[in-house]
Design a protein that fits this description.
The complex is a heterodimer of chains A (about 725) and B (about 190). Chain A is α+β, with helices and mostly antiparallel strands. Helices cover about 25% and strands about 25% of the residues of chain A. Chain A has a six-stranded mixed beta sheet with strand order 8-16-15-14-9-31. Mean pLDDT of chain A is about 95; it is low at about 555-565 and about 720-728. Chain B is an alpha+beta fold. Chain B is about 25% helix and about 15% strand. Chain B is built from five helices and five strands, in the order E-E-H-E-E-E-H-H-H-H. Chain B has helices spanning about 40-45, 105-110, 120-135, 160-165, 175-190; strands spanning about 20-25, 30-35, 65-70, 70-75, 90. Chain B has a five-stranded mixed beta sheet, sandwiched between helices. The chains are: A alpha+beta (about 725), B alpha+beta (about 190). At the A-B interface, helix 2 and helix 15 of A face helix 4 and helix 5 of B.
Amino acid sequence: MARGAIRTVDTLAAEAVPGVVRVFTPDTMPRLPSVPEQPDWDIMYGSSFVPMADRTIHYAGQPIGMVLAETLEAARHAATLIHYEFAAEEPVVGLDVTTDLAGEPGHEPEQIWLGFVAGYLPGAVKRGSGAAALDHAAVRLEGRWRLSTNHHNPMELVASTASWESADRLTLYETSQHVANHRNGLAKLLGLPRENVRVVASYVGGGFGCKGPVWPHSWLAALAAKAAGRPVRLVLSRAQMYTAVGYREEQWIDLRIGATQEGKLLGATVTKLSATPAWEDWVEPSWYPFTFMYDLPALETRCRLLRANVMAPTFMRAPGEAPGMLVQECAMNELAAELGVDPIELRLRNHADVYPIDGSQWSSKRLKECYRVGAERFGWASRSPTPRSMREGDLLIGMGMASASHTVYRQPASARVTITTTGIAHVAASATDIGTGTATFLRQITADELGLPLDAVQALIGDTGLPEAPMQAGASLTSSLGSAALAAARTLRGRVLALATGTEGSPLYGHNENDLALDDGRILAGGNPTGQTVSGVLRRAGLTELSSDGRFDPGGMGQVRSGDPVRDRREAPRGMHSFGAIFAEVAVDPELGLIRVRRLTGVYACGRILNPKLAESQLIGGITWGMSQALFEVTHMDARFGRFTNTNLSEYMVPVNLDVPVIDVTFLDDPDPYINPLGVKGVGEIGITGVAAAIADAVWHATGKRLRTLPILPDALLDGDEISSTRC
Amino acid sequence: MVAPRPDTAFAVHDPLAAVTLRLTVNGAVTEVSVEPWTTLLDALRERIGLTGTKKGCDHGACGACTVLIDGRRVLSCLTLALSARDGAITTIEGLAAPDGTLHPMQRAFAEHDALQCGYCTPGQIMSAVAVLAEADAGRPSAATDPAHRVTGRAVLDEREIRERMSGNLCRCAAYQNIVAAVREVAEATDPSRP
């Protein structure tokens, strides 16, 4: 049931099950001393909704009961025995309603809140003459793109283990992308000083956005553990994860875009429609890519939100960019076909030489080279422009391409580096590792700076007791935390050398530090061994170890402009983006409508690549997500019941091994002196962008069908309901 | 294979009546107390403390819980612990040598970066080990050309490996590196190669 109220609840049978410790319902669940409030510049909540606090039902899947038991089996069985009676009402879900839960045709928020990584964005953007610019367009394209609900579905289930060490000290083992956020959130909600909450999450089995914010399961586990007087482990089932930790909302994006006969963009209007819960606004800024990607002199964007019986959506890999680049790049490809211009050529004619948001310079941009190298590697020249013109036996072959881009986010970060007389160094930060190689890059940076072999450096991560690292989000951890680790290691190196040269009686006393180097624990002077070691320097100073802290503060990277640190990070004095180009080849079986992606070639300029192996893996993964967005992923909603119907990994389709072709990833050298001391832009998010547009264009090229409902499934190719580009 | 004897000791009908059974896991016999409907996955993780085997869906859809019973891969979330009592169970913890030397498949996964978050990895590796055994037994897959008569090890080209590994989801999508890892071990251990 997605809307209504609990009338009666009976827990007797559940409580009688052997092994059951406690049964909680909205009537008996302990209350939070303090509730989530948004916006909060320090804590990111998934939602401000507090379940198990009253009897009202707002969405299907809302928690209404919780059983603690000695065994999983007893808890599960007892949960089925709690008896509820409900007063049900008709739910309001879906985007094709005339009035929403508030009895309105929707509302248009003035600004949207994206948590402390991205802060506020305006709900509507107007640039230049806005929609009026379209009046002069020789060529106009108009269409609605329908994008499905998507769920993160990391392989690891979401889980919290809460253990009260005393009446006011909590340890939480959490599947978290940001332990400091969970510490701050739990401390606030439970009314504890932050130092009394410890959150641990060293390695996390994938997140993709859903494990960043604080969601109700964490505080429910903590409240239950306190009430029971013993540690509680709460593991969400796969099905529960579809309504407990957010999702990418279903969205309809209406686009009008116009160009001159020569293919120069004149203007665009973008209107997004999506649903949000009764109690708060959430919308990912899918229009955002239109603001930065091309030289687009006029733009007008709006977003309309429908209040519905749904839990809050949230960040999912490349929020804003993933759907926005999809629509924008599809439109570019449709325009190119209208104009009879090669898709790469159309993009070159509209290349943004300066950062379109404020006319400033880019920190670095090698998009044109991405097109060129990508086209060469892929063999773009072999594409015959006419749709349905390439065949292989019975199969229709299609090729498509798109641009890729992601905003560079930068977050404050701290790290500590310690070197000991055993010759081992430690690098410590609270960051977790969700599969991106946090421990590896920290060790690499430290080893490089201290002249140590990688094996001599250990990483301590994933614990709020360590120096505070930012959220693993927005492809910003490596760049931000890596810069902090670099600062720490650099300071430590300087202190070791200062000890060596500044201590009377030291064999290196009086040496110029600039002539010295560290190499495998030894100190070299002018490149030659001195017989002195780092350990020896520490021992002579009476130390067993020496530590330095390092910090990365993006506020210090450029001029402060708005006084709002988050905005300043986003709106730095230069446009800061990673860029790429993605090419796809598909084969379509015209009788079955089956689409096979046969090749994917991506070329990227993402600043400095610290670890090519890990970076390539991130891109392969991200590109596969884009392919999945194009052809696989949809969470179906049964509007009668307001309930998702395929909340499992058998019916929520994601690519398996055989679905994915060989993905060819190339990184261009992309030095960027502006973004951070490491020159790293981040690679976690850009991979997904553009891919679905390249595949949709390849499907058009193969079949002649323009499909604007994603994912593209075989039935869309089989039925006669063909959507062609509209020339008006 | 010896047919299991009818075993009246386990003819229980109370779903909550715990029963004691012996499981052979990684060569060691362990006595555990489980409910009749306890899955092998939950018995391994919750009762025996072997948490290397992962729960991704509890539904038989993702492969994260793959273990070997008598050398064959099974989904431990769809296997009752009771029904595994006669088999030799191998989990990811039992793959490395007693001195800690990694199994060749573990080493190849690490070398090829055939993982990102690592959560599906135990299941992927157990599957991959079983794939080689299946190929050695000449078992065809859906990717095998039916016209080709398999004698000895089935050919493990890229398509064969992808097909045979498609029961193990990897949301991070490390698939092509998984293929490279399996392929390397398959080639190094191919009995038909000199």
